Amino acid sequence: MRDVLIIAGEASGDLHGAGVAERLRVLRPDVPLTGMGGERMEAAGVRLFERAEGVVGFVEVLRHLPAHLRLLRAVKAQLRSGHVGLVMLIDYPGFNLRVARAAHDAGVPVLYYITPQVWAWKPGRLKMMAEVITKAAVILPFEERLLRDAGIDTTFVGHPLLDRAAALPDRAEARRRTGLPLGREVLALFPGSRAQEIERHLKDFEAVARELQRRRPGLEVVVSVAPTIRLDASQVPFPMVRAQSFDVLRAADVALCKSGTTTLEAAVAGCPCAVVYKTSRITYAIARWLVSIPHIGLLNVVAGREVAPEFVQDAFTTDAVANALEPLFAEKSPARTRMLEGMADVRRSLGNAGAALRVADMASAMIPPELGA
After folding, report:
1. Chain-centre distance of CA 192, in angstroms?
2. Which of 71, 74, 103, 303 is most buried, taking the most CB atoms under 10 A from its CB?
3. How remote is the C-alpha of 229 from its chain's centroid?
């Protein structure tokens, strides 16, 4: 009996892979699930041959290249063994596109969930993707047509974060869950979900928070810490909250977010925010040359305009960010009202909850008959 091989290279992929695996275990309990991922996938019934933690940035990836090559050799060996009937890839394009090529060469169908962001950079990947991907499941509304036009069998399945947003708490309940007082203004900091992002952002986030506390006496500040991050209290000058990010966003009045999925979460939760990002100067120089879109925050990318202000690299200064955030605390301010209206538009465009179920249904339909024999 051949396996379904699920490859996720970082924490978010592990989360999304777990959701699909749980549904697949119900649809096809007779089919073994193996893969590369983390604790969530393992708990969902995936037998892991490797635990993986993603890295970002060109310089950072080079440091991890030997490990990537070792893992790629291990995956190729599995594909050549004939024990794999379907490969499901989740995000992590630098590694997973190589796996897709190897699977195609081995005659194994490929379902790619959360495809490479060719709309942002490396559009030349589309040609190769059309050659090696059997089916694609995309999570942003404009991606379906883009990939279909390139000859890829593509389905927009909705954004998976909507599954976690099905029953958002009101502010009182969110503050109870996070231990935050009801009568205080709250600023939530989201400096990143990877150790290197925390290292680059935390001090600058602290400076913005201190400045806002100076301007708004009594302001409560909390740091949202991803479950994959280990931080000592001595490293963080504010209370750390390890609750679900949606709980923190619903509890907060305003958020400061590192660019990424958290900006979409803020839009869905209706929490006004600013978007920031810093990386190494070499990585930033290369990115400026390669990236072809005007925005870095996903909520702005989906909206097609700047809903939340962005501050990248040298533009990320304490005063500039504090000046952008301060008006957002006022309940009826024009800046807050405009942003919440834009966020509502973004949420509507993300589709409906149930992305993991739809992807699992797609995977089940792609499993060769002999896998269930």
Report:
1. 11
2. 103
3. 15
**pLDDT one-digit tens code per residue, 46-77:** 999 888 654 343 334 445 667 778 888 989 99
Q: Are residues 198 and 306 in the same domain?
A: yes
Q: Which residues pair with 188 in a beta bridge?
A: 222, 255
The radius of gyration of the chain from alpha carbons, rounded to an integer in Å, stands at: 21
The continuous run of DSSP H or E covering 98 comes out as: helix 93-105
Walk across the sheet containing 254-258 and list its strands: 240-241, 220-224, 186-190, 254-258, 273-277, 310-312
Q: Residue 39 belongs to what domain range?
A: 3-160+354-372
- pLDDT tens digits, residue range 92-145? 998 999 999 999 999 999 999 999 989 887 888 999 999 999 999 999 999 999
Q: Do residues 336 and 330 touch, judged by C-beta distance below 8 A?
A: yes
In whole angstroms, what is the distance from residue 22 CA to residue 45 CA?
Answer: 7
Tell me which H or E stretch contains 17.
Answer: helix 11-27
Task: Looking at the structure, tell me whether residues 317 and 361 fall in a common domain.
Answer: no
The number of helix segments (H) and strand segments (E) in the chain equals 17, 13
Helical residues (DSSP H) of 150-194, grouped into ranges: 161-164, 171-178
Q: Is the Cα torsion angle 7, 8, 14, 19 positive or negative in sign?
A: negative
Neighbours of 105 (CB within 10 A): 12
